[in-house]
Automatic annotation (TrEMBL):
Signal sequence residues: 1-26
Keyword terms, alphabetized: Blood coagulation, Cell membrane, Disulfide bond, Glycoprotein, Hemostasis, Hydrolase, Membrane, Metal-binding, Signal, Transmembrane, Transmembrane helix, Zinc
The name this protein goes by in its record: bis(5'-adenosyl)-triphosphatase
Keyword Membrane set for record: yes
């Protein structure tokens, strides 16, 4: 005989119950016991690691790392897609306009100070936000910042427990050696619960050779991957591997530039008419006298450059609401370089362009007890990393622009409803059920005509809405 309709229903309930209840049980959040302390977290940035390098180069160590954990293929970073703004967004969860580090070169009209990446330790620049290595101190945690932008800055009167300022002569091995030591602690002092570490490649070489120089970039990416191998073996040596959560990510990507794609400002206006605060590929200008007149000269200056008055900067860039944003912003199209004058190309590769351009996006990989093994996400945002890290460390996040829901499916023991998968399964089950039902009716009809009672029973059952299906 055939299965009756109530049996299908039971099967469907069981299947849906399995889909929705099992992940909830797996969280074990209803145990009522005090939670064990969260595992330590290590955040590592390889500057300028474009998402597409993962597809173009082998990266065996990195692949082995995320095969045991999570890969996010693209991360939408914040505008401007530069090093300092995005590194500060990673550890604050804020857009540049809200954390105040809006560029590599800044001028603050209130304090009349200048910021440059080699002269950046004045706390006033950083204090509009608070990085995780400071906030985590409030939970009684030790923290560490290894050459991350802002590491040595006294922010809200504090620094990380351990930190070192940027020093290009310190090797990767020395940096990871010190970080693992900080994370392990020594009998007297507890290990750091949160550590952020910075490495300057493949950014440096991407600027110098251009990302399209596959010969040179494959060597550089091999070195980066070797360093990831070193990181894994150092963590294993310190018995931290498998005990700590590790996030490997970057601040931005890289695109090829060319001498054929130069935009010279001198062709449009006299240098006496403005002060230049920042140049390529996003220029910040302060007009000397008449803002409108200067803007009119710039708005039609070049077909591959867009000029914005501060108040007209598109909302989606989240780059208007800060007094450090200058009255005029010039934005070059992908691969174009703005110079003051002449025809010398300063860099073969560059970044900083509109954050909707895929070549500007970095990636994210993660592994450790807090992450779901084998999870693959197509994209999240750079600002989503901060609430994720706060969740992993069980500390309350400061106000930020990220969304925890975007990263839930990365975390072990979090309810993760993979919406397409659930819809697919439900549709599949319904298809099978209706096929079987049609077959059943057909065979039933062949065997004997359905009585009115049969229809009544089916109708009554059909209107019995299953809440799980809503
Ligand atoms: C660094 O910036 C401060 C503040 O703008 C300025 O006073 C100082 O001269 C700068 N130092 C260097 C070495 O440029
Ligand atoms: C900053 O910290 C120092 C010592 O750590 C303390 O003496 C001082 O009062 C603090 N200042 C503020 C404004 O909290
Ligand atoms: C820590 O860094 C210093 C350089 O600042 C280096 O001499 C030392 O070997 C490093 N420590 C480890 C354990 O790698
Ligand atoms: C890549 O860079 C190297 C070193 O600068 C250079 O010799 C080579 O011609 C470049 N290749 C391409 C395709 O640009
Ligand atoms: C540019 O500067 C010159 C003198 O330096 C001045 O005469 C002219 O009005 C300025 N033009 C604009 C658009 O500000
Ligand atoms: C980003 O977050 C900050 C802090 O909560 C908030 O002030 C700001 O309005 C947010 N920005 C956007 C675009 O939501
Ligand atoms: Zn960078």
């Amino acid at each position: 005989m055939f299965l009756s309709v109530p049996v299908y229903r039971m099967l469907l309930r069981t299947l849906l119950g399995f889909l929705f209840v099992v992940p909830a049980v797996a969280t074990g959040s209803e145990t009522g016991q005090t939670d064990p302390p969260p595992p330590p977290l290590l955040l590592v940035s390889f500057d300028g690691f474009a998402a597409d390098y993962l597809k173009r180069f082998p990266m065996p160590n990195l692949k082995s790392l995320y095969s045991q954990g999570v890969l996010v293929e693209h991360m939408t970073n914040v505008f401007v897609t530069k090093t300092f703004p995005n590194h500060y967004s990673l550890v604050t969860g804020l857009y540049a306009e809200s954390h105040g580090i809006i560029a590599s070169n800044m001028y603050d009209p209130d304090t009349k100070k200048h910021f440059h990446i080699s002269n950046n330790t004045d706390p006033s620049w950083w204090s509009e936000a608070e990085p995780l290595w400071i906030t985590a101190l409030d939970s009684g945690y030790k923290t560490a910042a290894m050459m991350w932008p802002g590491s040595e800055v006294v922010i809200h009167n504090r620094t990380a427990t351990h930190f070192l300022p940027y020093n290009p002569h310190m090797t990767f091995k020395e940096r990871i050696g010190n970080v693992t030591q900080w994370m392990t602690g020594d009998g007297k002092e507890e290990g750091a619960k949160f550590a952020a570490m910075y490495w300057e490649e493949p950014d440096k070489s991407g600027h110098y050779y251009g990302p399209e120089n596959t010969t040179m970039m494959s060597q550089v990416l091999k070195e980066v991957d070797d360093n990831i191998g070193l990181l894994i073996s150092e963590l294993k040596r310190a018995r931290l591997w498998g005990q700590v959560n590790v996030i490997i990510t970057s601040d931005h990507g890289m695109t090829q530039c060319s001498r054929d794609r130069l935009i010279a400002l001198d062709k449009c206006l006299h240098p006496d008419n403005y002060t230049l605060v920042d140049l390529a590929p996003v220029a910040a200008l302060i007009p000397k006298q008449d803002t409108t007149a200067v803007f009119n000269l710039l708005k039609n200056c070049h077909p591959h450059m867009t000029a914005y008055l501060k108040e007209n900067i598109p909302e989606r860039l989240h780059y208007r609401n800060n007094h450090r944003v200058q009255p005029i912003l010039l934005l070059a199209d992908e691969g174009w370089t703005i110079v003051k004058t002449g025809n010398v190309l300063p860099r073969l590769g560059d970044h900083g362009y509109d954050n909707s351009i895929p070549s500007m996006h970095p990636f994210l990989a993660a592994v450790g007890p807090g992450f779901r093994q084998g999870a693959r996400l197509s994209s999240i945002q750079t600002v989503d990393v901060y609430p994720l890290m706060c969740r992993l460390l069980s500390i309350s996040a400061r106000p930020n622009n990220g969304t925890l829901a975007h990263t839930r499916c990365m975390m072990a023991g979090e309810r993760c409803w993979d919406v397409p998968l659930v819809i697919g399964l439900v549709v599949g089950v319904l298809l099978v059920l209706s096929t079987v039902t049609v077959l059943f009716r057909y065979v039933g009809w062949r065997r004997r005509p359905l009585s009115v009672r049969d229809f009544q029973r089916l109708n009554a059952d059909d209107s019995d809405d299953d809440p799980l299906l809503e």
